[in-house]
Design a protein that fits this description.
With about 260 residues, the protein is of the alpha+beta class. The chain is about 45% helix and about 10% strand. Strands 1, 2, 3, 4, 5 and 6 form a 6-stranded mixed sheet that branches. Helix 6 runs antiparallel to helix 7.
Length: about 260
């Protein structure tokens, strides 16, 4: 399997970084819940998740692949420590472990196992924490070309043939998603009323598409794609989403250099 091929064990002298936030039951600590309790529970879980973010402010960055893993852990109520990495100053251990890419999950006990790649991490999470299951029955082709189409559209010059073709390609991918969600008995999410693996993978990408293109291309998802609009509305009401949403301003800033 891909997970078996990609999963590697890397022993590090010290994997723990100084800027961490403990997350309990898949949620960061709130004023109504004890930070000490959260730290203890997260420490006992032996799981650290390395993500893009601001280590000084302790805030998440604009990485849809990190967001995918965060949604998975939140949906499953998994306790973990979260470490933020500034992409302008990546630590050497991260470069050695994953080529500098995130997310990276570190299972500290019993073997200090390092798992780069969101595909590997989410597969591992569903195996190690099978309830609730996030196994998806959605054809992998649904949404497979969504992000490439988005990037091509975003990076195209104003009023160029590439902008026109990019928009057409993106709308075609959005229509495929809308058609799937519009089937009888389907929706509002790919997992019905709860997140499944397809939701965790595609929801952050749709979020980036909606926000970045509205800002840089004045593009909005067509009104006729009602199932997609219902999807985004339902998504943002989920506790797992609210706990992992890094905000539109960070997305806009992150995609500025690609526009």
């Amino acid at each position: 399997s891909k997970a078996t091929q990609v999963l590697t064990t890397i022993m590090l002298a010290s994997a723990v970084q100084p800027f961490t936030r403990s997350v309990c039951n898949g949620r960061p600590p709130t004023p109504s819940r004890s930070l000490v309790m959260d730290c203890n529970r997260a420490a006992k879980s032996g799981i650290e998740l390395v993500v893009k973010g601001d280590p000084v402010a302790g805030t998440l960055g604009d990485c849809p692949f990190c967001h995918r893993v965060l949604l998975t852990l939140a949906a499953k109520g998994i306790d973990y420590d979260m470490t933020f990495v500034d992409f302008a100053s990546k630590p050497q251990w991260l470069l050695d472990a994953s080529g500098g890419k995130v997310p990276v999950l570190i299972r500290k006990q019993p073997d200090n196992l390092i798992m780069p790649d969101s595909d590997v991490i989410t597969a591992w999470a569903d195996k190690e924490f099978p309830s609730p299951s996030m196994v998806s029955d959605v054809d992998p082709s649904v949404g497979a070309k969504l992000f490439p189409a988005f990037r091509a559209f975003l990076s195209s010059a104003l009023d160029s043939p590439e902008e026109v073709s990019g928009r057409v390609a993106l709308e075609a991918e959005l229509k495929i998603i809308d058609n799937w969600l519009s089937q009888p008995g389907k929706g509002p999410l790919f997992g019905g009323q709860t997140l499944n693996a397809t939701d965790a993978a595609l929801a952050p990408r749709l979020y980036h598409i909606q926000v970045a293109l509205a800002h840089y291309k004045k593009f909005t998802i067509p009104d006729e794609l009602k199932a997609v609009h219902a999807y985004l509305k339902a998504l943002k009401e989920l506790p797992a989403w609210k706990a992992t949403d890094y905000g539109e301003a960070i997305i806009i800033a992150g995609w500025g250099k690609h526009h």
